[in-house]
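> Could you send the 3-dehydroquinate dehydratase prediction when you get a chance?

Sure thing. Input:
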Amino acid sequence: MTASSDRPTLWFLNGPNANLYGLDANQVYGTQSFPALKQRCEEKAASLDLKLNFVQSNHEGQLIDWIQEARGQSPGIIINAAGLTYSSVPILDALLSFPGRIIEVHMSNIWKRESFRHHSYISKAAHGVIAGLGGEGYELAIEAMSRLIRGAD
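Output:
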């Protein structure tokens, strides 16, 4: 295992209302709380010798700022833009300017939900999309990103 400072840092961005995971009465996003999901993802990243900057904001501009901040600092961004997935051209533009790898992830299967969720602006910038697997999808995104940034098939 390499020294902590030598480990690549991935950015894992979560959009509006992700902080409410586990609190939804109809459990569309599962029963695991956001802090528990964050811990789960940090443990997964550490097992792959990666650092993880796992953040959440309800504000579009903050997500854009983080995408720009990741430039030159990270080889990859994993993003669940939540409701902004279906409406944010500015987030798409920021992602298109990011030189590294991008994976789009969703807790729920967006194609089994309301029709407005079937079109993602984020997908145009993403190297891949994982949807509908809940917290396991988040872990799979970290694993896939590890392979992408290290050149593994």
